Amino acid sequence: MNKKYAKEISSLMRDRAGFLKQNKFKLAAEVCNLLGQRFRQIREFEDALKYHLEERELSEISADTLSMAIAERNIGEVYLEQEKFEDALKHHKRYNDEAKASGDRLEMARATFTLGRTYHQWANVESNLPKLEVNRLLGLAEQYFKQSMEITEICRRRGGKDVEIDSMTGRAVMNIGLVCETKNDIESAVENFKKALQIFLRYENSESKEIQEDLWRCFRNLAGTFEKLHQYEEALNFIKKAATSSEKLNNIDDLIDDYLFACRVSAPFHN
């Protein structure tokens, strides 16, 4: 077991055993969620799947529809990280159905977004798919990202929290940009990345790690697309901003990648 998480995982396992002994199934399901996430982080997918399946079973015992939906999402994510796309899609469709059954509109927005991301990753990774099938998957990805945005707008009209709604909207717009990039429509990709960036910049001083990670992704995506357009000065500008975000997040691996990218796009200035 990964030493970094060994102590935490052992503690969570003790908590799980204690809650099960007391028939506190909802709390046990929450611990299984955390265990599954930790095993996913260290890429021990068999254990991750085991605990997310148990999370699903315990949520069903508790008759907690929203927790059942989240468990289905987690199971799908384990398969997605292994590029088992049909299995991932099966569970993400269940996630979408159960999110609808829960009546939680923000979770419904997350579920449709997750379906879009699953379809996009499938199209992006499977190199032996026929072009017609790739285009079908990309069309479905864009459709679900737009559906996610429609649901978040309903949440906004009903008085939902701006930061949660804007975060979901920004991610959907950014991922539509990624779909455009996969289609090699680079100018449309840039347009969508810039729209997403404007949304995330409203919260650039936020201490939320998720918002800072979204900002980093936007900067990095813009740097990559401007490099493809041979607009190296713009690419360098955005990769410098990505590096600043990596420093804030204390993500050394990403920071090194950002500096290597900066070196690469700086080279044309010295030729």
Which characteristics define this entry?
single chain; 271 residues; mainly alpha; Serine Threonine Protein Phosphatase 5, Tetratricopeptide repeat; Methane Monooxygenase Hydroxylase, Chain G, domain 1; 3 domains; 12 helices; globular
Tally of individual domains:
3
The largest sheet is: none
- Number of helices, where a helix is a run of at least 4 consecutive DSSP H or I residues: 12
Intertermini distance: 49 Å
Mean pLDDT: 93
Specify Rg, calculated over alpha carbons: 20 Å
CATH architectural designation of the largest domain? Alpha Horseshoe
In the CATH hierarchy, what is the class of the largest domain?
A: Mainly Alpha
**Which fold name fills CATH's third level, the topology of the largest domain?**
Serine Threonine Protein Phosphatase 5, Tetratricopeptide repeat
Written as H for each helix and E for each strand, in order along the chain, the element string is HHHHHHHHHHHH
CATH superfamily of the largest domain: Tetratricopeptide repeat domain
Q: Strand content of the residues, in percent?
A: under 5%
Shape: globular
Number of strands: 0
**Oligomer classification:** single chain
Instruction: Provide the structure class.
Output: mainly alpha
What is the share of helical residues?
over 70%
Low confidence ranges = none
